[in-house]
Amino acid sequence: GPGGDAPRWERVTVEDGVLLGDGTAALMLGTRLLGISALAAAVWRAAGDGATREEMTRRVVEEMGPHPEAGRVVEEVVASLAAVGLLRPVGRAAGLPGEGGQPLRQPEAR
User: Other CB atoms closer than 10 Å to residue 52's CB: what's the count?
Assistant: First the structure.
């Protein structure tokens, strides 16, 4: 299987969140209200307490159905969610989204 060095991402705890009927979500992070798409909400849920991009992609495909570029799409959504502070690398201190550049760009062990 894949090496154990793939970065893992986890959900950042939000103060409040509402899942809307169309699958989109409104999340309260600190004093910010963030609206996210149904896809982003699925990725955010899939991260749970820690998941690699590959694991998140598999969970999102199970929930939303296959997509020819699912891996790339999930990667972009993870980057967006990390940029706004809704996802963070596992083991990284909270409260500093984006610290240390682009965690997604770390070379993965082959």
Answer: 18
Query: Quick one: average pLDDT of 11-33?
Result: 93
**Helix or strand or coil: residue 32?**
strand
Tokens representing residue 12 in the block: 């950042």
* Residues 6 or more apart whose Cβ sits within 8 Å of residue 10: 47, 48, 49, 50, 51, 87, 88, 89, 90
Burial level of 23, CB count in 10 A (0-12/13-18/19+)? middle
Instruction: State pLDDT tens for residues 52-99.
Output: 999 999 999 999 999 999 999 999 999 999 999 999 999 865 544 444
- Block residue for tokens 């993965």: 108
Confidence of residue 18 (pLDDT cuts 50, 70, 90): very high
